[in-house]
Amino acid sequence: MSMGVQALLERQEGIRVRVESSTAQALSLARREPQAAVIVISPTLTVDNKEELAQFAAVSKVVFLAKGENTHRSLEALALGVRAVLSVESSAEHLLQVLQTVIAMDAIIMPFAARDGLDQIAAARGSSALAVRTSETLTLREKEVTLLLTQGYTNTEIARKLSITPTTVRSHVHHLLKKLGAASRAQAIALAYETGLIGTIERQLVRTQ
């Protein structure tokens, strides 16, 4: 897989690729020489290697290729700061498309297999006291931005839907991260589902319409 990806990116796209089989060496390189993105392939690291995934996510945009049976756990990886989760069975062309999107835009990408898990988490959490308290700190516009973030929209798309500028969207996202205590958009999305905040916001927005 890694050699096929390297050939596609270097020969067809002209993208310089470094392949490292050692996690320690790859992390050292990413810290020493900032990379546009880091591709992590299971089983070198799995969803259970939370510390290592978080370390990579702290220094670069991480695209994580997980085993098919673990793609439903994508939310766990996103909560660590990973930008995209794909199955290791994905084609090199699909990986290239996701990689280009992650590098070019502030986007979060997860497999369809993880979507049902998100809905189940939101339904199970309901309107927890924490979710209600957190929602009370958010402005109406911040709630709208939060909802669109969890639906996978980019800043540019959110700006179009809400008829505001991308700069204003970035400002709202910045305030959201601060209020949620999240270090990244991915962590904010994970927290919104895990605490039941997203369900609370959805009900509040319906009442305002």
From TrEMBL:
The keyword Cell inner membrane does not apply. InterPro entries: Sig_transdc_resp-reg_C-effctor, Tscrpt_reg_LuxR_C. Pfam families: GerE. Keywords: DNA-binding, Transcription, Transcription regulation. Residues 131-196 form the HTH luxR-type domain. This is Response regulator transcription factor.
